[in-house]
Specification:
The protein is an alpha/beta fold and 390 residues long. It has 3 domains: 35-226, Vaccinia Virus protein VP39 (Rossmann fold), CATH 3.40.50.150; 235-312, OB fold (Dihydrolipoamide Acetyltransferase, E2P) (Beta Barrel), CATH 2.40.50; 316-388, Nucleic acid-binding proteins (OB fold (Dihydrolipoamide Acetyltransferase, E2P)), CATH 2.40.50. Helices cover 16% and strands 34% of the residues. The protein has 7 helices and 21 strands. The strands form 5 sheets. Strands 3-2-1-4-5-9-8 form a 7-stranded mixed beta sheet, sandwiched between helices. Strands 12-13-14-16-15 form a 5-stranded mixed β-barrel. Strand 12 (244-253) and strand 13 form a beta hairpin. The longest helix has 12 residues, at 45-56. The protein is globular.
Amino acid sequence: MDPGGAGPRLSTAGKRGHRVGAPRHNHRMSISGTDAYATETHLPPLVERALAAARALAFPHSVRPEQGRLLHALAGGAAGAVGETGAGCGVGLAWLASGAREGVRIVGVERDPERARVCAEVFADRPEVEILHGDWRRIGERGPYDLLVLDGGGTGKSADDDPADPARLLTPDGTVVIDDFTPATDDPPLHDGKVDRPRLFWLRHPALNTLELPLAPDLATLVGTRRRLAGTETTWRGFAYGQIVRGVVTRIERFGVFVDLDGSEGFITAPELTRRPFDSYDEVVHVGQEVTAEILAFELFRPQVRISTAALEPDPFGEFARSAFGRRLSGTVTKVVPFGVFVRVAEGIEGLVHRDELTDRAAVETGAKLTVEVTDINLVRRRIRLRFAP
């Protein structure tokens, strides 16, 4: 796990085809999503780039254009973060990134290493897009999300796929999209002559207001918006938004840290644990440790208090930004990736030297010392661009 890392990195199982018109809920549509673009024109340039990558890899199961246009529109309403499980070669992410506003983070998870690598290449010049390689549950490391697209895990459509938890992964009023259903004609909806329970799980989820949207004669998508209850953003059980609280860590899971707040459950996601980069939770906290945190939100359906220990730490990024722009600095290469290298230029601060800025990429390896110049700092995205300064 690399919850504290930065930059595009390398979801879940590959997506399979399905016979036209056959009832299903856990398979891809029969029409190849990649082939479905053969007659499409006026596509966003980023989508064209991702399609070219999918074709070069002979990957047929890209998001269909009908679904892509829906994602493009929904991404425009996101204010902070957008996520997708099952990134494939990045076609769906390209629709999302093309529709998102300036400053919105885009996170994709892909389980297949080759597709994850290709996907990272597609977005090499888009620092707001981050590709994680691994199980779909890694999406929780960067949440919560204003928009979450479940395309390769977390849908609950198969017996071995646990459904994602919208109360944990979505912001208040956040939206979840579960794609690739056959349009339902029965109430309750049926699958193979039986009640389609995975579809009902989302349609009747107590934390969501969910609609089924028919996009084509053989394609429907579920879109759910997390319910906002009066008062959940201000006070609950004697707690108040912005209040500073103390608690004891009770357990640590892959998706975050649980804290006992005098009988109420607190929860800290990886990004809210610390501002410092880290590779595993035990570098930061341990069970039984007392922590002090700020209250961010209330999860009434769990019930749970969302808290942040990072909010009480000084922000080294902001301090660095005040004086570093345009400076030449000495740094250490922490990671070599297809699109460049990451260089640590201060404690807890890393920047990217894009591959186009490197005169001899073959000579650059992890641990190497480089002299770099800071060429761009984005406080909203928390990204630093560097230039090799020989």
